[in-house]
Write a structure and sequence with these properties.
Elements (H helix, E strand, L loop, with lengths): L1 H18 L14 E8 L17 E7 L3 E3 L7 E3 L25 E4 L2 E4 L15 E8 L4 E8 L5
Antiparallel strand pairs: 1-2, 3-4, 5-6, 7-8
GO molecular function: serine-type endopeptidase inhibitor activity
Keywords: Protease inhibitor, Serine protease inhibitor, Signal
Protein name: TIL domain-containing protein
């Protein structure tokens, strides 16, 4: 009888192991002092940036700095403590090819050419109402164009 009981217990243990759900492995795609968010701010704090900003309520998913940390620069991908931020002008990257290039709002200069700023959100707009059109207004915080619907109010 003890042999039958042993077989039964081994069978139950193997069944439990076979049907057990494995624990998901947490893969953190973010760097040090960062965490992933499904809906984070489009205006993250960064070194030498403005202390208070008026930011739109849109959100984006991605990596964001932990509490007490800010991005090392505007559009940066590393988080540092505020007291570790370089003073304005220190170690600022200079792109010689961009010295004389002027890009429109929402673009940045890289290697002498204007490209879309990857930090600017992209918008999928529905058609405007009759008599209206979208006009890009520049967000003063991140210099990105934001489409705003403008309607003709004249009574012709």
């Amino acid at each position: 009888m003890s042999f039958t009981l042993s077989i039964f217990l081994v069978t139950m243990a193997l069944t439990a192991i076979a049907f057990a759900k494995p624990k998901p492995i947490a893969i953190d795609p973010c760097g040090e002092n960062m965490h992933f968010k499904e809906c984070g701010t489009t205006c993250p704090a960064y070194c030498n940036g403005p202390e208070s900003v008026m930011c739109n309520k849109m959100c984006k998913n991605g990596c964001f700095c932990d509490d007490g940390f800010v991005l090392d620069r505007k559009g940066g991908d590393a988080c540092v403590r505020i007291d570790q931020c370089p003073k304005s002008g220190d170690n600022e990257e200079k792109d010689e090819k961009c010295a004389l290039v002027r890009c429109v709002a929402g673009d940045v200069c890289r290697d002498g050419e204007c490209i879309r700023n990857p930090d600017c959100p992209m918008f999928m707009m529905s058609p405007p109402k009759e008599g209206c059109k979208y006009v890009d207004e520049i967000d003063p915080v991140n210099d990105c164009p934001v489409p705003v619907e403008h309607c003709d109010t004249s009574d012709n």
